[in-house]
Amino acid sequence: MTDRTMEDGLEELEVEEAPAKGKGGKLKKLLLFVVAPLVLVVALGAGAFIMLGSESDGMAEGETPRQPTHAPIFYDLPDMLVNLNGSGRKLNFLKINVSLEVESEEDIPALKSMLPRIVDNFQVYLRELRIEDLRGSEGIYRLREELLRRVNMAVQPIRVNDVLFKEMLVQ
What we know:
Layout lengths: L2 H19 L1 H30 L20 E4 L3 E4 L9 E10 L4 H7 L1 H13 L8 H19 L5 E11 L1
Antiparallel strand pairs: 1-3, 2-3, 3-4
Helix pairs in contact: 4-5
C-alpha cells in the first residue's frame, strides 16, 4: 500500500465512523485526546516556572544579584511580662523574649539608648492584647508585624529589619 492509499483508507474510515457517532463524538474525542492534554501540559509548565522561578529571580536585565555584605546583627531585649486584657476574673499573662535584627553593629548603642522607649511601646501594645489575639500562626504574625512597626517608629532613623521571638509563654 502506498502512502496515498493509506491516507484514502483512513479518510474512508473517518467518514464511515462519523455518521455512526455524530459530530458530538468527534468533538468529545478532540477535547479528550488533544485539548485536555495540551491544557494540562501548559498548566504544569506554568506551575513549574512559578515554583522554580525564572533565572533572573525577579531582577531587571543587567542587574547583578545582591550579596549580603555581612552577617545579621541581633540585639536581645529584656524579658517582658505583661497581664493581658481580659473580661473575666481570671488573669492571663504573656511572657515574651524578643531579639531585634539590625543593619550594623553601629546601631546597637543607639538601640540601647532608646531601650526605655522601645519597652514602653511594646508594653502599651501587649497589655491591650487578648488571648484570642495570640492564637494560631496568624496571631503571631500580626504580633510580629505590629512590634516591628512600633520599634521602627521608636528608633528612627535606625532601621530594625525583623523582630524574632526567642520565647513566648501565655498563661
